[in-house]
From TrEMBL, chains A, B, C:
Gene Ontology molecular function: ammonium channel activity
Keyword Transmembrane helix: yes
Membrane protein topology class: Multi-pass membrane protein
InterPro entries the record matches: Ammonium/urea_transptr, NH4_transpt_AmtB-like_dom, RhesusRHD
Xref: Pfam families: Ammonium_transp
GO biological process terms on file: ammonium homeostasis
Segments passing through the bilayer: 17-36, 69-89, 96-116, 128-147, 154-176, 182-203, 215-235, 307-327, 348-370, 390-416
UniProt gene name: RHBG
Location in the cell: Cell membrane
GO cellular component: a single term: plasma membrane
Residue intervals of the Ammonium transporter AmtB-like domain: 50-421
Name of the protein: Rh family B glycoprotein
Amino acid sequence: VIYFVQIYANTNMRLKLPITCFILEIILIILFGVLVEYDEETDAKKWHHSNHSQYDNDFYYRYPSFQDVHVMIFIGFGFLMTFLQRYGFSSVGFNFLIAAFALQWATLMQGFFHGMHGGKIHVGVESMINADFCTGSVLISFGAVLGKTSPVQLLVMAVFEVTLFAVNEFILLSILGTKDAGGSMTIHTFGAYFGLMVTRVLYRPNLDKSKHKNSSVYHSDLFAMIGTLYLWMFWPSFNSAITAHGDDQHRTALNTYYSLAACTLSTYAMSALTAHDGKLDMVHIQNAALAGGVAAGTAGEMMLTPFGSMIVGFLAGIISVLGYKYLSPILESKLKIQDTCGIHNLHGMPGVMGAIVGAVTASLATIEIYGNGMEEVFPDVADNKRTASYQGAIQAISLAVTLGFALVGGLLVGFIMKLPIFGAPSDASCFEDSIYWEVSSKKLLDTSKLCICPQPKKHCNYTVGKSRGPVDHCEDRRVRKARGD
Amino acid sequence: VIYFVQIYANTNMRLKLPITCFILEIILIILFGVLVEYDEETDAKKWHHSNHSQYDNDFYYRYPSFQDVHVMIFIGFGFLMTFLQRYGFSSVGFNFLIAAFALQWATLMQGFFHGMHGGKIHVGVESMINADFCTGSVLISFGAVLGKTSPVQLLVMAVFEVTLFAVNEFILLSILGTKDAGGSMTIHTFGAYFGLMVTRVLYRPNLDKSKHKNSSVYHSDLFAMIGTLYLWMFWPSFNSAITAHGDDQHRTALNTYYSLAACTLSTYAMSALTAHDGKLDMVHIQNAALAGGVAAGTAGEMMLTPFGSMIVGFLAGIISVLGYKYLSPILESKLKIQDTCGIHNLHGMPGVMGAIVGAVTASLATIEIYGNGMEEVFPDVADNKRTASYQGAIQAISLAVTLGFALVGGLLVGFIMKLPIFGAPSDASCFEDSIYWEVSSKKLLDTSKLCICPQPKKHCNYTVGKSRGPVDHCEDRRVRKARGD
Amino acid sequence: VIYFVQIYANTNMRLKLPITCFILEIILIILFGVLVEYDEETDAKKWHHSNHSQYDNDFYYRYPSFQDVHVMIFIGFGFLMTFLQRYGFSSVGFNFLIAAFALQWATLMQGFFHGMHGGKIHVGVESMINADFCTGSVLISFGAVLGKTSPVQLLVMAVFEVTLFAVNEFILLSILGTKDAGGSMTIHTFGAYFGLMVTRVLYRPNLDKSKHKNSSVYHSDLFAMIGTLYLWMFWPSFNSAITAHGDDQHRTALNTYYSLAACTLSTYAMSALTAHDGKLDMVHIQNAALAGGVAAGTAGEMMLTPFGSMIVGFLAGIISVLGYKYLSPILESKLKIQDTCGIHNLHGMPGVMGAIVGAVTASLATIEIYGNGMEEVFPDVADNKRTASYQGAIQAISLAVTLGFALVGGLLVGFIMKLPIFGAPSDASCFEDSIYWEVSSKKLLDTSKLCICPQPKKHCNYTVGKSRGPVDHCEDRRVRKARGD
């Protein structure tokens, strides 16, 4: 044991990352062997047992949405975080690792809580989407601690966060009968406040030692825009991926589309208004423009109307930019919450807003508006088991439950992650790929240390590939000048 | 009023961008509130009013295509324009802003002209695709003025161009009964000639002041290839997104696929043939290889056959490269048309070609070839309301109408954009992100000003992170040499 | 003829690339005109001849998967190879050219062997997917010779490889009745061993002349991750694209998803374990994490179970990393196989493993497990034409046949490509874009030759855009020091 602790204390990953990955994956494989089986739509025998159209297979309803969600998880979240100048490998690479682990673990945890059939967990396209959703929550939390945690710490976080996510989701969706198809509460609020608590516990008073690396360079901001745009474009698929078939999926995608469009305009407006000298800030564009998707996560499947969706998106963009500009510095200085990606502004506040919008929209549901569609959106209201107001109250309570789980859970898991055995990087090596990745010195060009040619165009036309002649010429010139020739 | 004019005259965006965005979005929200409602397939009550399979919902026929189109609009157009070395933020960022605005405005304008139901505009997946299409047209025009206009000018352009687009589209599709599913005329020809007129009116005689920034660097060309490839891959979805269900969507995708493949080969051939010293030119590859998609925009849904599609694509690639090589310089020097992205070569000429191919293919339509499928491709011919030749003539007239709308519209809107209140950049600040975006000097590394180590490998092995030792050593060496040691 | 040979001997592409492209494309167009026609689902007349639901059109079953595969071919393979620091244009650009050619040629070759209907080749979404699959095989081979062949050589390779691919595929799928939906054998094993033989024949003993260019820089590794992730995310669509409708497509996607997730964890583990100083190696992450998709290519559609899929993926990741670390250097030093992308580790060994897994899984098939679904997975077993063991044996024989075709084919085609008329680059110009592309010296910044400011922060705060003042100051300082001031 002592030997293991020693291995794990070092920031070197040679043994502890392989050991952690192997143990986790072998446990996963064993549990999958014991617990998981194909559902009725993926099993050759069960599917062919009865007669039906191939289109009855849920694959055709949901697989395109699943692939869009999948892109959001791996490209969207992964590249959104590549904005850091020297942390691109870790951003996209650890995102990849954690997500690949979390989606397997989430399949088990979510299956355990609401997918058991005769002692077996059934899997199919819906479980794949749900697992990706749960993974998204972990990646949101990753955004808060980005640059400050080792991959082993992140895997530990994923183990516990996925578990708590599944419990909270079970309470909301299965016990309380909450509606939250796009996960304003279960995914965004939970992931954000969990991550904020974790980063609070992992507070580093001397993080300014690596402050110069906690910023972007020109091309890293363009890479991040790839992530932003994929999240933005596919958010309609995200929110509609597991809603009921037909009008529900259709309406949810439409609402989210309008919410995001309106959010984008208010984001640009607020960015120019608040940023230095009327210039737009890439941080706002990359993040706040997405808040409209978060805020439409709960109400998106309801009869929110395009009008309502646009108001929601419009306000979400404003709140998010204001958060980046004014709230984040306060959170860091007063509450000691170092939130690298500003997840509080992108997922936290818009998530809470989405939950409130969902509660209000639910409480206004009437049979005049929903008709027979009520059965699919609010089954308990349609069956007269509860009133719309009661449903709205349940939605509000669910927000409180989620916040409770996230904050307490993040606190506990933060302390576990703080144990000095997971190889956390030193303050000076934060935001630095080269402690985890093979990076030749050449690869990480530190542009701040480069010389600029004294007379670029006239005397010293150095061009790559012609190093010999002109360089000598130029050096001669400069040196001759020095010599006083 | 005078105060506002003053605000707007300055290139600083602090007030005029927020004011413009807020006013536009608030108008949009109000109009959506008054005019827009869910259609039969997105409304919970209406959809559940009658009995039908969930698959009857158009969502399942068109949503995957919509998402492909969506990627083309935001990633495709956005990244295609990131080829400029110092204008990547603006390329992808203004593309994002304009598109998010235009799709909302287009929903209203297109709905007003051909989607009204009892005084209300109905929205669903088809309106989303159509709005994205109209947005595409605006982004094509953006390509002509890229680097030379403020975001406020671009929003003003979008307001008017979307309106004129909707009028032209209404005349063609609803009044004349023109077929143009992939928009060779309505989208590409219109967007291109509109944009060319705008850039003609905004002609800058002293644009050579920023000429050195109007070019690419190595990585910016790779970013642009992301845009190119997404446009290329998803063009089959673009052209087939709103054709009739079944064979029509299937055939359109197939035709476009072959047209693009043939176009790619002729593009590479012509690029090597015409470019300097037999080398390929990234400008051609990034753009001309897409001309096959434009040129198959009208005839793609017809019985063009793979053979016909390949001929069309093959010729489109040739024309487009020749345009980049020989016509663009003439347009600039003789006609004073400064076309940053060469939209005349990618959208203008191939769009006209596509319209002509469509007219010819339509005029050759017979019941022997189309059978009962004639009803879906040429309903007026199937119903004996017009002959195929007449349909062909209508297609040709539609091209003329579109060119007229585009040229006159672009002229007028160009003069509006020229008003000195929208903060157009100076000649010297064109193609420069830093006037609109927070860009640290470090971010925009001007590689032309960098020194190259005199003896890179032998004496002066500077590596990042080891600045102390070797640098001193090297400086010593050089300085010692200067001293005559 | 002599004149042509002279043209082709030079590395300059001005004439030989255009001539090759034009001749190939014109031949393609003529053959398409003579041989290709729409199938029942893309032809207006045939489709409307009988009554059916629009959803019966295979377009709706397969088009979303086709687009995912399309992205893998053009973005996935294209960007995966952009890891080379000075070969990004060629990686993504030649990938684009070869793929655009190969998919047309594959349509003819595959159609000739198994798509003829009354003397005509029928095309539709299934032929598009199959053509993309065949193209994928050529791109795998491209990975082995990346950086060392001219585009004309690559087109020559594609002509022959596509032909041999189609023959081998015909023997396996049509004659032997082999199951290989995701192409562990037909695509990966074939493409890999074909490419390895080609690169063996093209062995360059003096390749170390361009060794310094055969590596990545920081941003090129990030571009490569775009390719990796798209391949990873869409692999479930790849393996399921042409399986039977319903449970088969669903199950195949699910199995592949789990195989890839498990593979990712073992890849990270093995990379940290084997790489220098416990650091992760981007080469492993970019490539080995995909081996799980390759290894699930044959058995993915079978009742492999999630448990089995994860074991397969887990082992594939381990084998692949070990291959990169230990086998590739041996292949190069002992067998003279210079495998630029390490396709043996990503496609070769995992492909063989996938074939074996498929043979074993097939031999274990029982009616208890498959029920009536047996008809779709193993029709010959369901019809009692062969036993499951016999099917397994056939699968194993198919692997041997594929290896034979690949090795002999690669050998022959390698010698054809070696003919000194296709403009192969010299040893010193390998891995270098500038011999094929217009690249300004400025574009290819050779970071190894850059100076670093002696006192970056204190005396010499050069920033771009302020070259005048500080530079003079700094130069003065240095020169003054030299003068002994």
